[in-house]
Amino acid sequence: MDAVNDAANHTAEPVPGPRSDDHAGDADHLESTDAVLDRNGGHRLYPRVTSFRARRGAVSPSRQDSWDRMWPVIGRDVADEKLDADAWFGRSAPVIVEIGCGTGTATAAMALAEPQFNLVGIEVYKPGLAQLVQRIERDGIDNLRVLRGDAVDVLENMVAPESLTGVRVFFPDPWPKARHHKRRLLQPETFTLIASRLIPGGVLHVATDHADYAEWIGRYGNAEPQLIGMNEPTGGDPDTYRNKAPIGFERPVTKFENKGLRAGSAITEFIWGKIES
Prior knowledge:
Structural class: alpha/beta
Number of strands: 8
CATH superfamily: Vaccinia Virus protein VP39
CATH architecture: 3-Layer(aba) Sandwich
Distance between the termini: 33 Å
Number of helices: 10
Shape: globular
């Protein structure tokens, strides 16, 4: 599946070509969020180089039709106003955010398996989102909403502190070259931001198939003082937390992940909980 993914790159530095996974992020005509904030005289709480690539893709006519019908109800673009999840979903329920939902295959599966939660997927790539929007309409999924834009901006500006029961980041772009590590989504500051948006006891679940990024994620995630490990890679015992955590530790396996498994890629799962005072 997948993963705080993204707007136009601001440097002239070449970037790698797009990945072929379900979670490839995309700017898709979005103006640089930093440029908007600078123009308005604002500033970022967590300054960073964005982690997504500027790519474009076509949306089929049938998906565009579905988008036109559904987006006004289930979709929104990133904005500087707080999100009222209860009003948007028409009910009060625990909220789980998935960063980088891509085409949403796993996102939709989790929404159907977790009717007790309100799920919000964040993605920048419109063709991917259009597939998810069409699936939501086709399958009648009523507990899933989507946000289009940079997830860090969503968390900073639209999500209130201690309001999320869970955050999921599945297979974020690893940006493997050392000079591109600054583009990785999961920086120390991002862990701090995510933790601040979780309720006490809330869960951050991250998965990656990239060994170097796994080491990076483990190092910085375990260093975040607001979080405690809930599974082996985070130094915790899953049997201690599995039954009392507010969300499950399971997730669907996607076509992209199966391809990686057949090629011998190792999947590393990280599960942290927000420390309860």
